[in-house]
Write a structure and sequence with these properties.
Elements: H1 6-16, E1 25-26, H2 29-35, E2 38-43, H3 53-62, E3 73-76, H4 80-91, E4 96-101, H5 106-114, E5 118-122, H6 126-140, E6 143-144, H7 151-167, E7 173-177, H8 182-194, E8 199-205, H9 210-217, H10 239-248, E9 251-255, H11 257-271, H12 277-288, H13 290-293, E10 297-302
Parallel strand pairs: 2-10, 3-4, 3-6, 4-5, 7-8, 7-10, 8-9
Antiparallel strand pairs: 1-2
Helix pairs in contact: 1-3, 1-7, 3-4, 3-7, 4-5, 7-8, 8-10, 11-12
């Protein structure tokens, strides 16, 4: 399996730069005190569509020539990737067809429709999502944009860590959550290429710990019936993504549902920014293992801020 190269990541950054924000980096003296070290937050919750997913989706869609894009693009996603494909397709002037599970947050469904995409609802299983997406592609001739198992997605997501390390080159650690593994693999690859002394840590809910189990056993392992408040992480890690993670990631930490909620609340209260539960998983891992990060410089990618405000967990 071929991993994206540093030049792939640089090309992706050039390709997407006019469609995305180079998001700001924030700090919190309260969180620094809790951890006993310096913590920097790359705020992809301020990214277009409110999540880092805009990077990968834009890189895939803009890598096709205009004449190749005419039938539009299709994907299945519970939310942020769906919004990203819808927005990037709109930027490219073509149609997006999005399959969403029936348990997707309404705020995300509404946002996808707001970007002009055609939405198809399906049962909330990976099999049902894949099958419904296949039917949409057969009907429309649209090109599929996979949420994570694609070198162009990984190269696009990698640009967040690239910006981060260019602005904060002295990081001892970087932490991201892991679901399908596009951001996790992309960030780990970036560090491997440009900052090999920075250790990549991944964070995962205990209830959806397939990447953790796979990392420890060395082979892909699934989770039956995944359930977590971190709705963006309910997918199993991709094969290509896991191959990169195995090679470039230092460690994976798992956190409980209550730890996720507590971390989310802490960021809302202390930093005055909206982050979604999936983002809070990385913050929870930082706090749970603060002895590892004490006296160090740690970067966290806040992955998104798309929250159903009438269903907050606190």
């Amino acid at each position: 399996m071929e991993f994206p190269s540093l030049s792939d990541i640089k090309r992706a950054h050039t390709r997407i730069s006019k469609y995305i924000y180079n998001t700001q980096i924030m700090t919190s003296s309260t969180i620094n005190e809790i951890v006993g070290g310096e913590v920097f937050f790359k705020c992809e919750n301020f990214q277009k569509v409110g999540a880092f997913k805009m990077r990968g989706a834009t890189n895939v869609i803009m890598s096709y020539r205009p004449e190749e894009r005419l039938n539009g693009f299709a994907t299945h996603s519970s939310g942020n990737h769906a919004q990203a494909v819808a927005k990037a397709a709109a930027d490219a002037g073509v149609k997006a067809y999005i399959v969403m599970p029936s348990n997707a947050p309404q705020v995300k469904v509404d946002a996808v429709k707001g970007y002009g995409a055609e939405v198809t609802m399906c049962e909330p299983t990976e099999e049902a999502r894949a099958e419904a997406c296949k039917k949409v592609i057969e009907r429309t001739g649209a090109i599929q944009v996979h949420p994570y198992h694609d070198t162009r997605i990984i190269a696009g997501q990698a640009t967040a860590a690239k910006e981060f390390i260019e602005e904060q080159p002295e990081l001892d650690f970087m932490i991201t959550p892991v679901g399908g593994g596009g951001l996790a693999a992309g960030s780990a690859l970036t560090l491997g290429h440009v900052s090999p002394t920075t250790k990549m840590i991944l964070a995962e809910p205990e209830a959806v710990n397939d990447t953790y189990k796979s990392f420890k056993s060395g082979k892909l392992e699934g989770v039956k019936d995944p359930k977590s408040i971190a709705d963006g992480l309910l997918v199993s890690v991709g094969e290509l993504n896991f191959a990169i993670i195995k090679e470039y990631v230092h460690d994976i930490y798992c956190v409980s549902e209550q730890e996720i909620v507590d971390a989310m609340r802490l960021v809302w209260e202390r930093m005055k920014i909206v982050i979604e539960p999936s983002s809070a998983v990385a913050v929870a891992a930082l706090i749970k293992h603060k002895e590892v990060f004490a006296g160090k410089k740690t970067g966290i990618i806040i992955t998104g801020g798309n929250v159903q405000l009438n269903e907050l967990p606190f």
